[in-house]
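Format is chain and fold; as here:
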Amino acid sequence: MAVRATVSRFPIDSDALEASGLPWGLTVTPFASKDESGIGPAYGSNGHLLPRCENCYAYFNTYCELDQWAWTCSLCGTLNGLPSDAIARYSNPHSIPEMSSSFIDLELPLDGSDEEMTQARPVYVAAIDLSSSEEFLELTKSALLAALEALSPGSLFGLATFSHKIGLYDVQGPIPVVKNVFIPPDAESKLPLELEDAMLLLQFLAPVETCKDRIAAALETLKPITSWERSSGAAQGIDGMLMGGRGFGTAMEAIFNYLGSEFGNTFALARVFAFISGPPDYGRGQLDTSRYGEQYASKRVDADRALLPEQTPFYKDIATIAVQSGVCVDVFAVTNEYTDLASLKFLSIESGGSLFLYSSTDDSTLPQDMFRMLNRPYAFNCVLRLRTSTEFKPLHSYGHFFPDPQYENLQHIICCDSYATYAYDFDFANNTGFSRHSREPPVVQIAFQYTVVVPPEGLQNSELPSSSRGQHLIQRRLRIRTIQFGTAQNINEIYDSVDHEVVLSLLVHKVILVSLEDGVREGRALLHDWLVILTAQYNDAYNLVQYKNGNKSMSSQIDITFSQCPQLEPLPRLVFALLRNPLLRFHEEGVHPDYRIYLQCLFSVLEPSSLHCGIYPSLMSYSTPDKQAYPRHSLSRAALLTSGSPIFFLDAYTTLIVFYSSTADPSLPFPPPQDCLLRKNINMVKQGRSITPKLMFIRGGKDDATAFETYLIEEQAVDGRGFPSAMGFVSFLDDISRSVAEYMK
């Protein structure tokens, strides 16, 4: 569980918080195996015996004062009695995780019999769009063959297709059998037949270890539906024109209900992989894609505002069915046409899944992404709770979860991998703030209760009853992290403790929310105004603005680069880069609305260092493929020219580019050899990613270098025109300086 705060020394009160101009909060990556310093938790059992505060329900931790018969809560100060079993256990503190570490992970007992505990076979269902092309189906087959290799023995796999009908495959016999259920074309009608009546669920779900070859054989039979099939099944429009045939919404709703009948019996979590090649245009949940087009200019409608909200609540509603059915949905959209991911995204973000977007089948990393996603550990049926000491409180929470309808600051996460990150911001609970001389510093406690499926090979035989050997086992666990923070006695101490990457994380969450509610223009304005206010507050705090006759004079130059505070120095560049990012660029600049939604979903779950990379890519140089020259350059042509290095490596999180300058020695090997230092660094970067980055090699002067030059943003205008000029980052700073002067008048 990695936790990083915007400031490691908290502001003393609300006046200090406002004067700083900084967001106050933290990010948490709950299922990360280690903390932010690389240290793992203390493991143990009997999590249900961990004492809890009678007042605030916080868990006992190493910061609590312990007497022989009682303990004092480190969050609220309440004195709690110790039960007799705890007194006996705590008499030997060295063997107790919660006595030795503030980061613990304890096993919880499961309700039910041993037999119920073993009903944990992981279930995976692929739902494939047949209203598509041969190339799309070939890519999907490759991805699913990769997925089959990553699935553990004992898993169950179901294959379904959708078009103007839903196809269910039974691969447990000698030859694959498909049963079809036709989808009514209108947006209101439900299926005439439940899927369970067409094929029993346990016929549909095949054991991977015995049916892998038959599943592969069934995949080979998939073909796009013909125009004749579509015209016979789909609705006819004017002059016989085809009006639809991709019944995605009806298919998803039916599959969730189908799986829900066995939730808690056959499986504890099911994952649905939905492969789609265009917008749903048939049956329930069909979308109107005509809202994306040239009509905005003529109607004076702000496209950046109109295209971000969902156009129907249908997918949000069936995401609720997925959650209730124990289903996590991963959506793989392989399309360059408008698909309205603003509506479809709820299937994945509400259910703990991922949303992937690939603009073409040619260079898609879909098979690698599937394998990578299934090869990493994940937790499910998770509950995340953040508690604070009494002086402050969580104000907002951000991330892909759904809040508990009854309890405040309690979030449910259906599926959580080791990369998924969530954010919180804080506010003071009252006007008093923290005491300057108190012995009780601010405390944050994060509790993460989760379930994992342990495959047979991960267990000792002694851990299982004899009847359950060879089966998966469910484990319910409780992970707790308790952190004490210092308080800053003045604003300089706040600024000196800033983590600029976490500040960026909270800013990204806030501008995404504002963009969704009020449009991209408002998101950009919020970001610009925030930097102006922060710069003004910093100049005020360091007395860089002179006072004459009681009035502030702009005679001394405003420090817009935060030269007195290294921790704040990166922020203007990060804000500039965020304004240049497709997340906040305008529709008329050619930013596809689906790509913007994809970035919103991706950036909302990245931990701070990865997000930094996605917003302001890292650029390093090499003198040879085996020798690094400089670890970091600014993203400008000037930096390339002045460095004199022949090879550059750019890491933009989703894309990796190796660029050889046009003046590079022709004897340098291109592309770099597999055993060189540069390749080792590339492979290390790829291994640490939640997605598979696209790798490109470009030779300056010979290859088209546009892909690389696009990332050299510091000489591009902030309004997004993108033409190289001397008016990029420098002119942005001048604009901020003028705005600060105006603000401070």
